[in-house]
Amino acid sequence: MNDRARRAHGRDQHVPADERVLAADLDGTLLGGDQESRLRLRRALERHPEITVVFATGRSLSSVQTLLRQDPLLPAPRWIVADVGASVIDAADMSHIDALERPLRMGWPGHEHVRAALRGFPQLAYQDVVQEGRCSFYLAPEGLTDALTAAVENMGCTWSYSEERYFDVLPPCAGKGPAVRQLAQRHQWPMPSLLVAGDSLNDLTLFHLRSHGVIVGNAEAALTGRAPNDPLIHRSRLHGAAAILSALRRLDWVKPPAPVVIGYHRAPARWSEGRWEQPSSPNGILPTLTSILGRKDRDDGLHAVWAAAATAEGHRTWPSSFPEHLPMALLPVAPSRWAGYFHRACKETLWPALMSQPHLIHHDPAHWADYEQVNAAFAHHISAHAADGGTVWLHDYNLWLVPGLLKRSRPDLTIGLFHHTPFPPPDVFQALPVAEQLLTSLTQLDWAGFHTATFADHFRQLLRGSDPVPRTGVHPLGIDQAAVAALARSRTPHATTKDSLLVLSVERLDYAKAPVHKIRALATLLDRRPELRGRLRFRLVCPPPESGIRAYEATRIELEQAITDLNARWSTGEWQPVEYIPRSLHFTEVMDHYLAADVFWVTSLADGMNLTAQEYLTAQAASERAGILVLSRHTGIAQQLGKAALLTDPHRPQDLVDALHTALTMPPSRRRANTAHLIQLLDAAPPLDWARAVIAAIGGKPAASSDSPDRRHPAGSR
User: Fold this and answer.
1) pLDDT of residue 128
2) How far apart are CA 131 and CA 56, in angstroms?
3) DSSP-derived pairing of the beta strands 125-126 and 87-90
4) d(CA 315, CA 333)
5) From edge to edge, which strands make up the β-sheet containing 51-56?
6) Which of 3, 284, 507, 709 could form a Cys-Cys staple with 513, CB 3.0–4.6 A?
7) What is residue 717's three-state secondary structure?
8) What distance lies between CA 570 and its chain's CA centroid?
9) What is the DSSP letter of 696?
10) Which contiguous run of DSSP H or E holds residue 179?
11) Integer-rounded Cα radius of gyration of the chain
């Protein structure tokens, strides 16, 4: 099975209920028109996998297979009607569908019998091609006599004459139209969901199906004259592929390519219990990027589509359309491929390097092949959705191979990639067994973005001496402070016991967040400060990663054992030191925890911006509470807050203990003053402004606002 047939077959496994179908002739139709028109049609069909493509051709199967191998502009067919409607083929495995062919070929005497019966007509020149269920000749117009057609009909056959050259003898029930009708009945395609396209008389039966139709501008006059005068049938002035694309647009079956394509390995929403669910938090990668999607009230020209991956199981239940404000283009990925790509290559090979833990790098060539294939599929997917000269905004290490692949096929695109994670020092990056392959791709970026100047410097040092070298920009991402503050003021904090102290961490399960380091530090603190026993509680909200990621399993086991041991040692009937919540919470629940906490504890070994720290500070300030942040100096936000923050170093166990003790013993008035000061230092752009500024930076344009990240961090763009 060729790659295009595989893609078509993958679509067919999970077709939406209101699937649309394009049944088109090849020569002069799908193969007609200039190269640019054919490319645009192919990309449009790739943007809309809900449109099933059926080839309806006079060619044989072997001829169609040769075309598919040799012509990269042909769209992927799901079904093939060949031999002028005498053959019906499943393009997934190129097998004949006997149940459909049998009634189409009923009464067929065989092409040898036909040749023998027509031997008395010297004007016929037999076509020396593979022929199944038909017999084809070359015939000049003057040779089409009543005697010839009567001889065909006397055999119980029918005939078709097209382009003043091709004379086909067919079984009495065969034809492109009858074959497509058989497919439609088998798959329950309603006629309004079908568009047929053709250019010659052997396509005439297609236009008797009472479906939508387009006769291309380069069609033979006889087809134009004999096709029904039906308002459903459009007679186009455009040739070949251009006419088909125009018809698809007239029916509103396809949308134009997007000037901006966002590429991320996750979708901005998930389909659950009959509806699309978006993240409850206003902050983070997904809410931030969706802030620029589908905004009808703006005139900045940044209308975008989100290209994301999704595993096949989820794809089975998707509806055929998405919310208007979420223009998504989902790329189906088989579960086994996703496991190799994300669970193994991303999390076991690349993630340790990003977290500056090179000793944890595990590389498996088989899983890396999955990473390569998913990136190649992404590059192809994005290309289909991107307008000429458009902007592509990629995100994170999951798509590091896309720039090289995409630039090769679409040099017209401007490609940027924002790193939400840390970017490691060059020596750590070079520890990757695939470092050179990744570097080759990253040099094809037009722009690379980072949260901090340090991360950007690491990237520039790594690519020093490369040609070309991407432009870089520093764009620290902020939160929607207004939304967080409003929610904080709307909540009623739970009553707390006087003299109790609550330390809170909210983070996903990841060794880079140093959760075990926290438990060890807490154990040391309770050992050395007996006055805290019975008063101090540590609440760890720590949702696990998606099922199948084994890179964090050792951390989970060690963490849970450490919690069990600590609680077993110190718990009393009314108190235990650690409250472990290993699940995701709605943002309102997280807010209640923020408001209840005296200390918010961030101990990342390496981190991006860390938006939870910003959320905690904002919630505490908005509610005029006296909480304080203890922040790892290895987070992106620490570079913004500087020495004003109460910093800690998770690589130094005693420092973790000391910093936490300082926070716990600090008077409430000082904690409140410190938080108020830090709030004033939070100058990272809110989500929508940040997204606009990054898109402008990718395109090499000045930021739209005078207080944009580029202007506030002039040293960050090169």
Assistant:
1) 87
2) 15
3) unpaired
4) 9
5) 95-96, 87-90, 79-82, 51-56, 20-24, 194-198, 212-215, 233-235
6) 507
7) coil
8) 48
9) H
10) helix 176-187
11) 32
Which tokens belong to 44? 């449009």
pLDDT score of 77: 97
Smallest CA-to-CA distance from 704 within 302, 305, 286, 306 is with: 302
pLDDT at 361: 97
64 within 8 A of 91, measured Cβ to Cβ:
no
In angstroms, the Cα distances linking 517 to 12, 23, 198, 541 are: 49, 62, 69, 15
Two structure tokens written together for 479: 């939160």
Q: At what angle do helices 668-681 and 611-622 cross, to 10 degrees?
A: 120
**How large is the angle between the packed helices 587-596 and 481-490, nearest 10 degrees?**
70
| Phi, then psi, of 524 in degrees rounded to 5 | -65, -40
β-bridge mates for residue 138, sequence order: 125, 166
Residue 54, strand partner residues: 23, 79
| Spatial distance between the Cα atoms of 129 and 131, rounded to a whole number of angstroms | 6
Residues in the chain predicted with pLDDT less than 50, given as ranges, are: 1-17, 296-301, 314-315, 704-718
For residue range 61-86, what is the model confidence (pLDDT) as tens digits? 999 999 999 999 999 999 999 999 99
For residue 281, what are its two tokens? 């938090």
Tokens found for residue 91: 């393009």
User: pLDDT value at position 283?
Assistant: 84
Cβ partners under 8 Å of residue 338, min gap 6: 309, 311, 374
Length of the chain: 718
In angstroms, the CA 157 to CA 173 distance is 8
Instruction: Please tell me the distance from the alpha carbon of residue 55 to that of residue 78, in angstroms, as a whole number.
Output: 8
- Determine the pLDDT at residue 17: 40
pTM for this structure?
0.85
Residue with structure tokens 């020596």? 427
Round to whole Å and give the CA distance between 108 and 112. 11
Contact yes or no for 161/144 (Cβ under 8 A): yes
* Predicted pLDDT at 1: 44
Q: Report whether 513 contacts 552 (CB < 8 A).
A: no
Residues 715, 702: Cα–Cα separation, whole Å: 14
Classify 559 as helix, strand or coil: helix
SS3 346: helix
Check: CB of residue 54 under 8 Å from CB of residue 80. yes
Query: What angle (nearest 5°) sits at the alpha carbon of residue 673, between those of residues 669 and 676?
Result: 140
Per-residue pLDDT of 448-498, as tens digits, reads 999 999 999 999 999 998 888 899 999 999 999 999 999 999 998 776 667
Residue 271 half-sphere exposure toward CB, CA atoms < 13 A:
17
